[in-house]
Design a protein that fits this description.
alpha/beta, Cobalt-precorrin-4 Transmethylase, domain 1, Methyltransferase, Cobalt-precorrin-4 Transmethylase, Domain 2, seven-stranded mixed β-sheet, five-stranded parallel β-sheet, 27% helix, globular
């Protein structure tokens, strides 16, 4: 007897991409998918584009989306609405910074059907003549526009997905403030429609206006602020002396080993330099900076925005209490407060298999603790002394910085 494959479950949601031309741009088959749906989800703009349908439920996305979307989907499931009865409308390709990725993350790929349209990114590249490999893409839809600053480098091309008509002005101001006023901006409005517009200007002279639906092409011209390899210059960070200096930071990050999609705890963050460089390593890296001093916590947020990672989460509080309820870490850096009761025990208990822990200590008490932890758990114990050349009268000599004891541990898988 031959085996038969079990019937494939219908997807829980069909996600249909729409171009800027809206309903008219859909094929007859795609239009029928929408009309046959029992429930249609989407933004207010998308829902307004489709013709009325008697008995059909039209439900806008909840706000904030990620917080309330699971409950909305659970309600639809409990109401018996399954399969192709649920259609979600999206812009262009739903898997390019779109709702499709969010739904797959929540429901699994087997329960989400994607029907893409041509993305605005593809249309913008075609208009500008930029190949996919020659430019980066940054979305500031629902995000801080300062995320663009991570991409700053002379000669680099960047496509920015705008939130609305105000985004080009905000981006121009950011570029001017960072010495990139000579960068050329191509603001492409209403791509793929008869209302298409293209405006070009240097960031230093941009004054608008812009279409509400727009994408920005940037040809960056400006100074090099620092690379993406660990060890940015110390003077790029605003600080009050509580800063993990660049040589020690580079050593710590080499052992923390940022990997795309992983999360870092930066405990006793000071100026936030380790968490910031962790996030600069890849756009999908995330971090939580834990800092007990309010002035320093505010400073961390400013540093993160200035260096292009405004999504760094800052938690004001004292470890270990402030570590409760945080996202599970892939790696942990303890730059201050390691000797406080319970801090190391909490960090070690939170470290997953394959996770990395790096701790810095400058006091005898912390050094003694790290020696004990090294004896118990193994890992790598290093003492780092850095000396910097500085004037001594009319001569030059070495000025030693305070030696730091570094303990690094990788938990076996």
């Amino acid at each position: 007897m031959s085996e038969t494959n079990p019937p494939r479950l219908l997807p829980a949601v069909t996600v249909l991409g729409m171009g800027a031309d809206g309903w008219a741009g859909l094929s007859t088959v795609q239009q029928q998918i929408v009309l046959d749906a029992r429930v249609v989800l989407g933004g207010h703009r998308h829902l307004a584009l489709i013709p009325p349908r008697r008995g059909q439920v039209r439900q806008p996305w909840p706000s904030p989306l990620r917080e309330h979307l699971p409950a909305m989907l659970e309600h639809l499931d409990s109401a018996g609405t399954t399969g192709a009865e649920i259609v979600a409308l999206a812009s262009g390709d739903p898997l390019v910074f779109g709702i499709g990725s969010t739904l797959i993350e929540l429901l699994g790929p087997e329960r989400v059907r994607i029907i893409p349209a041509l993305s605005s990114i593809a249309l913008a590249r075609a208009e500008l003549g930029w190949s996919a490999q020659s430019c980066a893409v940054v979305s500031v839809v629902g995000r801080d526009p300062a995320a663009v600053l991570r991409e700053l480098a002379p000669g680099r091309r960047v496509l920015v997905l705008s939130a609305d008509e105000s985004t080009p002005q905000l981006v121009a101001e950011l570029l001017r403030d960072c010495g990139y006023g000579a960068s050329r901006m191509h603001v492409l409005g209403d791509l793929g429609t008869t209302d298409f517009s293209r405006t070009e200007a240097l960031a230093a002279g941009w004054e608008g206006p812009a279409a509400r639906l727009n994408i920005i092409g940037l040809e960056l011209v400006g100074p090099t602020h620092g690379g993406w390899v660990a060890g940015l210059p110390d003077d790029l960070f605003e600080h009050d002396g509580q800063l993990t200096k660049r040589d020690l930071r580079a050593s710590a990050l080499a052992r923390l080993a940022p990997v795309p999609g992983e999360h870092l705890w930066d405990v006793g963050a000071g100026a936030g330099s380790v968490g910031i460089e962790w996030m600069r390593a890849h756009p999908s890296c995330t971090a939580t900076a834990i800092e007990a001093v309010p002035e320093r916590a505010a400073r961390i947020a400013r540093n993160a925005a200035a260096l292009g990672v405004p999504a760094l989460r800052v938690v004001l509080g004292q470890a270990p209490q402030a570590l409760t309820g945080l996202p599970e870490p892939s790696a942990i850096f303890v730059g201050g407060g390691a000797s406080a009761p319970g801090v190391m025990a909490r960090c070690l208990s939170a470290l997953p298999a394959g996770g990395r822990l790096v701790v810095h200590g400058v006091t005898l008490e912390t050094e003694r603790l790290l020696g004990e932890l090294y004896a118990q758990h193994g890992g790598e114990l290093t003492r780092i002394a850095v000396e910097i050349a500085a004037p001594i009268g009319s001569y030059t000599g070495w000025t030693p910085a305070r030696a730091v004891t570094q303990w690094a541990l990788t938990r076996p898988r």
